[in-house]
């Protein structure tokens, strides 16, 4: 008989004492519980839980004080917000949601402790061990199903007049000295559209607007505003000037998230918002995120280029269909699907580097001490990285899909991000970046903005 | 029997014969060939020739991953009581790589200079090279981002391959290039031919390479700062490159108590923490220094150190051009540098 390994995080004030109470009362509780004493259930970060699963736990139990009885007032509120969100992500990645449980046990509730732990161990025992392995045949079937999403043709729109307006605005801003740099798009010699940085008003002719303006330029914004880029050194002699940036509707929401996280002050950025008809994928059709875009006009801007549409066709994109297909599949198949996808990852970190939200100076998953994840490129490490990164974007991801665009291995990263975005919207009525409000789930400890 | 004067005996075979041959080879050794994996073309182990993707330009990752894998165990360390045992883990797998393009082959030859030809020899890499037989496939024409002709290569260059294949209409010309390659060929079943492979369609070189001795003069050029401004500091360019070979080594614990492994993983000069040392000092702290290193390494440092002479460590496969998310284009940089000279 397989005995499951259970990791239990017990809050020292209530649940750990509750376990003692159960012991003193000689109540039976399962022996395969590995108890870890923590100061508060709010201390149990999702990374710890994911790490426990990575290290071979079959189930993770988090026990804290009842709501209203936290010794730190709101520590257990954090647990109550985080763990259901994490559970949704883990379930989407193929872990049965019964394997992760959050509950409350007070110091006097020895009987409750015994009951919850026995119940949990029995549930996990009936699920059996976690099998992080993929069956190629079943994976193939699922990925064919996902690939079927219909493509929407790219709509006609007047890019030339938008290009002219962007150039005129950039010229005006640079000539008047209102901004020191304009971040926009240019077309390279091979005809590919790419980010560009304009410092002089004679260079504005390089700026363009076209159906291939896919990059989210706000990724460059914090560095440019704080003048930490190498090229900005030359300009550092003069007092730093604000930076103008060309944004689409999804990019504009990223600015809102950045403002909420104090990455830079509002007055340091001049937002040139462009009413966007969507951008093209490699095959010429509309990119998936643009199919279901409900904004078109940026939610925040200083200058608006183009006219906001009066009505928007509400369409389902391949992402929503993909999430539905995956959610309908049994957990084992979902896990196989994701492992087969992560297996292609080469850990080049292009997804992270292209993401405007990934801003940690040293990524948790790239630390030298290998505390969270090893250096290797095994499927377990890749799974830990992708799921961890997805969780860090809960309530922050604006769905600009830069991660997926940058991925050289075609990993459908945005499915993970959008699954979490849906979960956060359902539970907290929060949609990232609609206003400058921080994520209700992930706390970002961004310092105060400082001028260098 | 082959007459000794014929150094490179050539056979003409049909697509079916080729597939049957590959099927029989797959039974004896592990066969690695281009395969479509969820829309990405990669060199992957195949069980039979039906899994092979035909008519490709080049896979998204180069063949280097089978000789210098993204993660490789160098040692296994076991601690029992006071006793520490180090176990060397050399790769033993006998492989055949099918469909290696000339640019990838040149990539391997470039890596040979570092890992085999210059002491100390890397036992892991050289063992893999010894255990592998390479069946190359010459290109009929160049892909849209290929530029091998600009860096001294050619789409139909068969140097270094054990067996070279050339497409001629519906059939293939098979040329045995080495003794090792010859052992694979069922000589009694196939008929020799005098046909000479038709030269591939070559695009004119995009540019003249900047002279090797002109590189130091551009070290402090403003161009690097302009070029690196949009660089995201990801590692795509290095990981898809057939000749990038930076690595990091770390000891990590295994799940069994008392067991550890020493692993070697890919690294890239474009990444933020490249060559960070104790105390947190970063030798290339700025993006422009890191990106510049990539170009200098390909065209100046590596050829200089490992005696490649006039040829560069770039094979012109164009993978970095294809996969850079922000369109940092190596050919554009070379044209710009040639202009500066």
Question: Can you walk through the features of this model?
Answer:
The complex is a heterodimer of chains A (452) and B (341). By secondary structure, chain A is an alpha/beta fold. Chain A folds into 2 domains: 122 residues, 3-Layer(aba) Sandwich (Rossmann fold), CATH 3.40.50; 319 residues, no CATH class. Chain A has 15 helices and 9 strands. Chain A has a 5-stranded mixed β-sheet. A 4-stranded parallel β-sheet of chain A has the order 2-1-3-4, with helices on both faces. The longest helix of chain A is centred in the first third of the chain and has 18 residues. Chain B is of the alpha/beta class. Chain B has one domain. In chain B, 26% of the residues lie in helices and 22% in strands. Chain B is built from 9 helices and 11 strands. In chain B, β2 and β3 form a beta hairpin. The longest helix of chain B is centred in the last third of the chain and has 19 residues. Chain B is globular. In chain B, 41% of the residues are buried. The N terminus of chain B is likely disordered. The chains are: A alpha/beta (452), B alpha/beta (341).
Keywords:
heterodimer; A: 452 residues; alpha/beta; four-stranded parallel beta sheet; 37% helix; B: 341 residues; four-stranded antiparallel beta sheet; 9 helices; globular; disordered N terminus
Give me the strand/helix succession of chain B.
EHEEEEEHHEEEHHHEEHHH
Q: Which class of secondary structure composition applies to the elements of chain A?
A: alpha/beta
- Percent strand of chain B equals 15-25%
Q: How would you describe the oligomerization state of the chains in this entry?
A: heterodimer
Total strands of chain A: 9
Distance between the termini of chain B: 55 Å
* Biggest protein-protein contact in the assembly: A-B, 44 and 42 residues
């Amino acid at each position: 008989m397989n005995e499951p390994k259970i990791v239990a995080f017990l809050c020292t004030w209530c649940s750990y004492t509750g376990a003692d109470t159960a012991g003193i009362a000689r109540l039976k509780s399962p022996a395969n519980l590995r108890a870890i004493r923590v100061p508060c259930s709010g201390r149990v970060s999702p990374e710890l839980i994911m790490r426990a699963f990575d290290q071979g736990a079959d189930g993770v139990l988090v026990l804290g004080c009842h709501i209203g009885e936290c010794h730190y007032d709101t520590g257990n509120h954090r647990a109550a917000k985080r763990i259901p969100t994490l559970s949704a992500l883990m379930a989407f990645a193929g872990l049965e949601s019964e394997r992760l449980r959050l509950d409350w046990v007070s110091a006097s509730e020895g009987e409750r402790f015994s009951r919850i732990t026995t119940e949990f161990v029995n549930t996990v025992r009936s699920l059996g061990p976690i099998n992080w392995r993929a069956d190629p045949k079943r994976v193939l079937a699922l990925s064919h199903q996902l690939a079927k999403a219909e493509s929407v043709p790219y709509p006609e729109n007047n890019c030339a007049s938008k290009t002219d307006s962007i150039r005129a605005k950039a010229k005006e801003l640079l000539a008047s000295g209102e901004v020191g740099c304009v971040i926009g798009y240019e077309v390279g010699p091979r005809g590919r559209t790419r980010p560009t940085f304009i410092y002089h008003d004679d260079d504005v002719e390089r700026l363009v607007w076209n159906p291939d303006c896919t990059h989210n330029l706000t990724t460059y914004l914090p560095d440019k505003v704080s003048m930490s880029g190498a090229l900005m050194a030359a300009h550092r002699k003069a007092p730093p000037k604000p930076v103008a940036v060309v944004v689409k509707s999804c990019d504009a929401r990223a600015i809102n998230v950045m403002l909420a996280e104090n990455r830079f002050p509002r007055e340091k950025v001049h937002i040139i918002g462009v009413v966007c008809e969507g951008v093209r994928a490699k095959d010429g059709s509309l990119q998936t995120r643009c199919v279901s875009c409900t904004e078109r006009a940026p939610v925040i801007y200083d200058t608006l280029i183009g006219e906001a549409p009066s009505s928007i066709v509400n369409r389902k994109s391949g992402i929503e269909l993909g999430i539905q297909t995956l959610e309908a599949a049994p957990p084992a198949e979902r896990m196989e699907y994701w492992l087969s996808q992560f297996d292609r990852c080469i850990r080049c970190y292009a997804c992270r580097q292209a993401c405007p939200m990934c801003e940690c100076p040293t990524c948790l998953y790239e630390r030298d001490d290998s505390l969270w994840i090893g250096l290797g490129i095994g499927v377990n490490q890749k799974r830990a990285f992708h799921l961890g990164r997805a969780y860090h974007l809960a309530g922050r991801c604006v769905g600009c899909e830069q991660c997926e665009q940058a991925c050289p291995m075609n990993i459908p990263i945005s499915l993970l991000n959008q699954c979490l975005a849906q979960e956060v919207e359902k539970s907290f009525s929060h949609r990232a970046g609609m206003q400058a409000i921080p994520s209700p789930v992930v706390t970002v400890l961004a310092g105060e903005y400082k001028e260098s | 029997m082959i007459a000794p004067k014929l150094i490179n005996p050539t056979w003409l075979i049909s697509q079916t014969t080729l597939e049957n041959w590959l099927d029989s080879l797959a039974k004896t050794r592990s066969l690695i060939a281009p395969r479509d994996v969820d829309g990405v073309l990669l060199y992957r182990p195949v069980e039979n020739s039906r899994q092979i993707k035909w008519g490709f330009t080049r896979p998204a990752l180069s063949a280097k991953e089978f000789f210098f894998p993204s993660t490789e165990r160098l040692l296994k360390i076991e601690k029992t009581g006071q006793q520490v045992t180090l176990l060397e883990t050399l790769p033993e797998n006998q492989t055949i790589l099918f469909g290696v393009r000339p640019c990838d082959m040149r990539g391997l030859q470039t890596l040979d200079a570092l890992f085999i030809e210059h002491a100390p020899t890397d036992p892991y890499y050289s063992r893999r090279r010894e255990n592998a037989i390479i069946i190359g496939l010459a290109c009929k024409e160049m892909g849209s981002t290929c530029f091998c002709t600009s860096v001294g290569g050619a789409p139909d260059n068969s140097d270094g391959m054990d067996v070279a294949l050339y497409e001629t209409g519906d059939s293939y010309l098979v040329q045995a290039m080495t003794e090792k390659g010859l052992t694979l060929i069922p000589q009694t079943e196939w008929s020799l031919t005098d046909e000479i492979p038709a030269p591939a369609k070559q695009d004119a070189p995009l540019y003249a390479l900047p002279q090797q001795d002109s590189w130091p003069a551009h070290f402090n050029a403003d161009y690097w700062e302009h070029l690196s401004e949009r660089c995201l500091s990801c590692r795509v360019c290095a990981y898809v490159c057939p000749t990038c070979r930076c690595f990091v080594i770390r000891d990590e614990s295994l799940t069994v108590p008392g067991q550890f492994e020493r692993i070697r993983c890919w690294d890239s000069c474009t990444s933020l923490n490249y060559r960070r040392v104790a105390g947190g000092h970063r030798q290339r702290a700025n993006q422009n220094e890191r990106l510049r290193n990539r170009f200098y390494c390909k065209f100046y440092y590596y050829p200089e150190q490992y005696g490649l002479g006039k040829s560069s460590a770039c094979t012109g496969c164009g993978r970095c051009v294809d996969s850079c998310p922000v369109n940092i284009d190596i050919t554009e940089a070379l044209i710009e540098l040639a202009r500066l000279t």
